[in-house]
Design a protein that fits this description.
Length: 109
C-alpha cells in the first residue's frame, strides 16, 4: 500500500527549506505559505516536528524574537548546510519528478 505520509514528509522538508531560504520566518507563517501553494491540509502537528528535525540536523537555526502581536515568536533561518541541502533536494526532486512523470504517462493499465 502507498504511504503518503513518507512521501509528504520528505517533500515538505524541501519545501520548508525553500520557504525559509527566501526570508526568515516563523512556524505559522510557513503553514500559511504552504497553504497558499496548495498544501491546505497541512497542520501545525505536521510542520512543527519537521522544523525540530531540520533544526536537529543543523539545516536551520531558530531564534526567539519579539512579535508585534504578543509573545515572542521562534523565527527560523537556514544555515549554510541548509542551503546545501536545499540545492541537493532540488537536484533530486527534478530528477525523480521527471522520471515519475515519464512512467505515469505510459499508456495502458
Amino acid at each position: 500500500m502507498f504511504d503518503k505520509s513518507q512521501l509528504m514528509r520528505g517533500t515538505l522538508e524541501g519545501c520548508i527549506l525553500k520557504i525559509i531560504s527566501l526570508q526568515e520566518t516563523y512556524g505559522y507563517e510557513i503553514i500559511l505559505k504552504l497553504s497558499t501553494y496548495g498544501f491546505e491540509d497541512i497542520s501545525e502537528g505536521t510542520i512543527y516536528p519537521l522544523l525540530v528535525r531540520l533544526e536537529k540536523k543543523g539545516l536551520i537555526l531558530a531564534e526567539f524574537k519579539p512579535s508585534p502581536l504578543g509573545p515572542n515568536r521562534k523565527y527560523y533561518a537556514p544555515t549554510s548546510l541548509g542551503h546545501e541541502a536545499l540545492a541537493t533536494f532540488k537536484t533530486y526532486w527534478d530528477d525523480i519528478s521527471d522520471k515519475v512523470s515519464i512512467i505515469l504517462s505510459l499508456e495502458g493499465n
